[in-house]
Amino acid sequence: MPVTLTIDGQEVTVPKGTTILEAAKTIGQQVPHYCYHPGMSSPAMCRLCLVEVEGAPKPMPSCVTTVMDGQVVHTQSEEATASRKAVLEFYLVNHPLDCPICDMSGECSLQDYVHEEGRDSGRSREPKRVFGRDDFGGDVLFYGDRCVMCTRCVRFMSEVEQDTRLTVVDRGNRSVIDTFFEEGLDGTNWHGNIVDICPVGALVSKDFLHKARAWDLEHTPSICTSCSQGCNIDLHTRDNLVQRLKPRENLDVNGWWMCDHGRENYEWINQGTRIEAPLVRDGNGGSKAVDWKEVLGALLEQANGAGAVKAVASPLASNEDLGALKALVEALGGGETVYRSARAEEEIVLKGFPSLARRKDLAANTTGAELMGLERAGADDATGGLADVAGHDGVLVVLGDALEDQPADFGKNAALYVFLGSHESEASANASFVLPVTTFAEQEGTFTNVAGRVQRFWPGLQAPGMARPPWLILGALVAELTEADLPRTAADAFAALASAVPAFSGLTYDDIGTRGALVNEPVQLSGD
Amino acid sequence: MAYPYVSDREVRVLSTYFGDPKQRHIETYVKRGGYSALEKALGMGPDDVVEIVKSSGLRGRGGAGFPTGVKWSFMPKEKKKAHYLLCNADESEPGTFKDRELMRWDPHQLIEGCLIGAHAIRAQHVYIYCRGEFFEANQVLARAVEDAYAKGYIGENILDSGHDIEVTVHQGAGAYICGEETGMMNSLEGRRGEPRIKPPFPAAVGAFGKPSTINNVETLCAIPHIVKNGGEWYRQWGTEKSPGTKLFCVSGHVIKPGNYELPLGFPLIELIEDVCGGMKDGNALKAVIPGGSSVPLINAEEARACKLDYEGCVDVGTMLGCASVIVMDEATDIVKQVRRMVDFYAHESCGQCTPCREGTTWTAQILRRIENGKGTEDDLDTLMEMTQNMVGTTICVLSDSVAAPVQSSIEKFRDEYLALIRRGERVGAA
């Protein structure tokens, strides 16, 4: 049942039961608030979202007041703005003005709201309340003085993670967030989210502490690679390094949340010692860095009649990369491709948002690999399973798998051994061609998550040296070997994939957008 | 009787047996006519009981003065879930001490009122939420409930009427805010004592998520008398809009402070000068807070015009509240008095709503600074404006209660503030 009301002179029609705050969002009016969060209950205690409702005796909390037909709401009237100005003054009675050394500065909503609507100067002459700093365990540090007592963190732990580790201690002006005894947040799996939802700098990440100022960070939409859930994230980068990962809202996948495992797993992206130029080896221990034209020419020359193909691909490679590999294997006369991925014993479900879990499968694109016909190999720690491949005497192609567990004679018998990777390892020493590729953070592409949702990611970092996306390198080889066109963009590579693999047919980058789109067939991961 | 002080102007209905320890015994209570109203009520339909109470015009004695019968009629007529009656015995308004005395001296009167109320709202369980610091009252009540169970006035099939009503006495842990009805429900459920947002109202979603009604001790104590004698009988006292008798807790600079049961509409000045024996040491009257510390204070002139009923107090710019009359003589330091009350509210704020959490303490800090001679005239403007920002902007009315004494004292006794401020300036200059 839709309800029609007027907000700031504009008529709005929303479903019955919608709050005024959410209804205002639909016309682009953001009512300032702290305690309200769409993923949790609303205690209506911050009193910042009070708006004027005609006929109501006093300003109403827009986060819990539901719309009524014919209601007339003013979010910008004198009464509403005066109310916010007054509440903001109360916040600043005790909030320290330590913005210059506060990690939240630049993305703090108290800072923003006060700049927008607060008083020019404060009237309080009294000493401020002091709580000091507390280590909450896990990755979380608590600066009590900055807390605005919105209790979002307490409600996240009790309602969403459903592991009540935080509470409000004492009452009134002495209220402070605290952990139970010394237990803290250690051992919980989703606590990083309380740092995200803290509207001020009260809860900060130890990992990110004093690492970068918010305004120096570039935000790039991406997908978490730490498991097959495919949480939507933003890469926050500075100086061509990932500084932190933050969840990006997508109600179909991860809501507003991401797990601590995924959040903390980004250092590998920043790892140095990358392969920066294509290498050609002469078979006698000598190698030479050459340009792309030369290396691809030499590779095609050797590929002629080199025998059956065996390929190993990483499930961290994008759909486009795997599609291009599949096309190359077929162009070379066909063969089998395997992938290896680590699996956890248990899923870790976010109880208050049960469609989100850290999945058993700990790679971003296992579903994509399986949809393209790759076979799973090896143990649950992503080792072993390559006995046939290691001694194969035909064409051997490795994409992205670092082969760290493999012996030094891996691929020694191969007629042609092509290694596409970002880092060298012992097992890549025998490769005749070592081709530097980009990571997901340096290229555009898509992953297919555990539910069969194809999701795009964008490049947030500059690739080192001559590293190129695998779909471009493999696509160039395929274009030389067959009639296919050279893919010039990731969208081209995806289109090629969509025409070759039925599960992806009909999907385009435009359809997928920033929210993702489902593949055409039901998906089930091997082992699930 | 020896009960601290009595006056022949009193009309003792609820307080008849104050000072008589025998009344606590169930045998004495029954011998004196107790539990006959319960028997009468159980023989009537719940809605008929509500009608009697409506006709009496009884208004809630907890402070808001909402008509009790009307409140009861908000409860669902068809019982789809459990219903609860909560008796608010968390009397903690500074200046109030009537509920404690009602529970100490006449616990069965309260229990009988609770049982009739429970029947009227179709509740099967009564929770008496008694203030934790009332050790004696808690003990007396617990004993009385036990006795009433033993005699079959509480429990299954009460007096063979087929009605089952349970009574539990719950001891609070010492928080003013748990006297706020929704805060009390949270506390009863084992949560932090923090008021809830209304709507939903308790009659729809109350304690344990079930329809509930919350009544003050004094309100429920009046119920047996009204049921026994009828609504018209109760209307013989008081005014048209504020019928009946009311316990007045008089404290401060009077010769005979104490609880006095008087008809509503009684002149405040006669309460002070006649009933309470006049001002102590012959000092002049300076100010009165007629309804507990949450209501605006009035000066002597206003006090002379004040009639003690809900409307009469509003006429002089204050409220009857729970009728806790705090009398202050000419020697009272108003600023200190107000600061001490604000300190209380700052200590008791639950801390949910920002204007209250921050504002109560800030107000206390400014008042303390003024008291210490370090205030400025600007502080008075800040106080007036800032306390106004605490009115109507929070979930409950605790922060409104800070605004009342601060604003009324600055308006009526600005000279006293200015004297402290100017003395401070002189000290600073020297």
3D structure, described in words:
The complex is a heterodimer of chains A (528) and B (430). With 528 residues, chain A is of the alpha+beta class. The two termini of chain A are 41 Å apart. In chain A, strand 11 (218-223) and strand 12 form a beta hairpin. Chain A folds into 3 domains: 2-76, Ubiquitin-like (UB roll), CATH 3.10.20; 94-216, Alpha-Beta Plaits (2-Layer Sandwich), CATH 3.30.70; 279-518, Rossmann fold (3-Layer(aba) Sandwich), CATH 3.40.50.740. In chain A, the strands form 7 sheets. In chain A, strands 15-14-23-22-21-16-17-20 form an 8-stranded mixed beta sheet. Chain A is built from 13 helices and 26 strands. Chain B starts with 25 loop residues before the first helix and ends with a helix. In chain B, helix 3 (46-56) crosses helix 6, helix 5 (98-105) crosses helix 7 and helix 15 (354-371) runs antiparallel to helix 16 (377-388). Chain B is globular. Chain B folds into 3 domains: 21-234, Rossmann fold, CATH 3.40.50.11540; 246-329, Roll (Ubiquitin-like (UB roll)); 334-429, de novo design (two linked rop proteins), CATH 1.20.1440.230. Chain B is α/β, with parallel strands linked by helices. The longest helix of chain B has 18 residues, at 354-371. The chains are: A alpha+beta (528), B alpha/beta (430). Chain A binds chain B through residues 43-48, 50, 57-59, 61, 64, 83, 86-87, 89-91, 93-94, 123-126, 129, 148-149, 168, 170-175, and chain B through 175, 177, 192-193, 197, 346-355, 357-362, 365-366, 369, 382, 386, 389, 392-395.
